[in-house]
Amino acid sequence: MTWGLIIVLILLLLFVFALLTLGEGLLKVAASQSGVDGSDYSVIPNRLGNLFSGEKSKPAYIPAPAKVRHLKRGFNINLAGVADKKLYIASHRASSYSVKPSDFIGMSPMPKLLVETGTQVKAGQPLFFDKKRPEVIYAAPISGELIEVTRGDKRRITAVTILADQGEIQYHSYDQIPSLDASSREELVKFLLGSGAWPFIRQRPFDTVASENDTPKAIFVSTFDTAPLAPDLNLAVAGKEEAWYKGLELLAKLSGSKVHVGLNGGSDQAPAAAFINSNKINGVETHWFDGPHPAGNVGIQIHHTDPVLPGSTVWYTDVHGVILLGTLLLKGIFDTERVIALTGTELKGKYVSVHQGANVETILSDMTPEFSDEEIWAKDENGKKVKKTVQVRKTRVISGDVLSGTQIDKKGFLGFYDDQITAVKEGNYYEMFGWLIPATGHPTLSATFPAALFSDISYVADTNTNGEKRAFVMSGEYESVLPMDIYPQHVFRAIMCNDIEKMEGLGILELGEEDVALCEFVCTSKQPLQKMLREGLETLRNS
């Protein structure tokens, strides 16, 4: 064989490869523009594609006909401090509970209070409503005495706090519990609005409480969480399977088409049987996902199942929301109890069953002291250097995960939608030479640190940003950790320019803060991407 023929064959192979690659890309773009999942279509036969892509075989617990969506973009941050399933406190009664209007996007700063301080309330009793949406009632998560209405700047209501009864919980009674078989969709919506259960259903775009005037094209529920130190949601449904199924039946009646349930197809442990059997409910479909974080985010699952398109709306809730809805129909009580994970190296990792909005002070009673005394050099009034003792914060408490959670005080309250409390060290120190030192104490996406060679290492997290805010450069980092067919860097540039048409055209309507939290973590420019995204979404929502 002559060298000329070899060169021709190589060029021919390169041409065929380029043609297949171009065809694959154009096919996925066309599928995305049509509103369907591009991973379902390929110019390369499945078996041949799997051979070259190295896709894993399905775990034994996944039914044979089921398809697994393998998401390759993303990054798992392995942190020390995982909650131990053996350390599970079946029921914990906190001293007080709070509902915070700031947990609900778009709510007016001064909701209308329906009860006065000193009033005895029951779990499920209406507390307040948004003046812009008076139909949606926000209810008490526990029975007890309403002891405080906390106000902030310009008399903004920041929290409504209840001192909990330490005896048996008293539940608010409803005039009539609707039957799924005999009630219309309108009757079910009206009941949920007045019961306090409606705020557990949210919508994309914007992540606001779902609009009762819309019929969504689909409703989504994710049954697993891939965020750092995230809780195992199999514990949340254990013993509550009947309520789970009833909640799915209710959602199926509210949906305009289907209820989509996302399942974890990449774990060594099988999902709970209740999750796997969700598709036995009429109108419910299950979808298997495998991949690094953020594969467990509901926004990612929406994108790969039935994406949000301009002019369309989808609803979503979480496992706890489904169980609450089902319990409301089965027992006629507003039961906000949920299993949460206490995580992070500053806590003794365990699971606790608490009611929504619980005060975390008693839950974190075994936490490392939050402050410590340290000596620093300072100048006195005469300009002389002296040693001074100051209190330095040593631990940060977060309601939620380290990427998208909210910092709270040790005496703060669990967020309305949160099922995790994380305690990490404050990173108020300077690291000499930074990435130039070949240390292994940092998770790394770009293999800057040798830790990239050891994927199973667990890291002790702190709050150091390991960098500073700088010019917003094009790096391609965001695209490598966001498994969506959009260009996040361009989205954020459109937000900075306040270009509404470009924002919408580039796919901002599909995004929520938790979806870009990992982008913020890997960002070379250290931009506050979650804050920027919310500003862009609010600009669109109010336009």
Q: Summed up, what is this model?
A:
The protein is built from 13 helices and 21 strands. The protein is α/β, with parallel strands linked by helices and 543 residues long. α12 (513-522) runs antiparallel to α13 (529-541).
| Average pLDDT taken over every residue | 88
**Number of DSSP strands?**
21
Strand content: 15-25%
- For the record, give the distance between the C-alpha atoms at the N and C termini, rounded to a whole number: 68 Å
Q: What is the count of DSSP helices, taking H or I runs of 4+ residues?
A: 13
As a percent range, the share of helical residues equals: 25-40%
Shape: globular
Largest sheet composition: 6 strands, mixed
* Class computed from helices, strands and strand pairing: alpha/beta
Number of domains: 3
The poorly predicted ranges are: 33-37, 46-54
Strand order of the largest sheet: 1-13-12-11-14-10
Radius of gyration of CA atoms, rounded to a whole number = 25 Å
List strands and helices in order, with pairings.
Layout: H1 3-33, H2 46-53, E1 68-70, E2 84-89, E3 96-99, E4 112-113, E5 120-121, E6 126-130, E7 133-139, E8 144-151, E9 157-164, H3 185-195, E10 202-204, E11 218-222, H4 234-237, H5 241-254, E12 258-264, H6 273-276, E13 284-290, H7 298-305, E14 314-317, H8 319-331, E15 337-343, E16 350-355, E17 371-379, E18 385-393, E19 395-399, E20 406-408, E21 420-425, H9 477-481, H10 488-496, H11 500-505, H12 513-522, H13 529-541
Parallel strand pairs: 1-13, 2-16, 11-12, 11-14, 12-13, 15-21
Antiparallel strand pairs: 3-9, 4-6, 5-8, 6-7, 8-9, 10-14, 15-16, 17-18, 19-20, 19-21
Helix pairs in contact: 5-8, 12-13
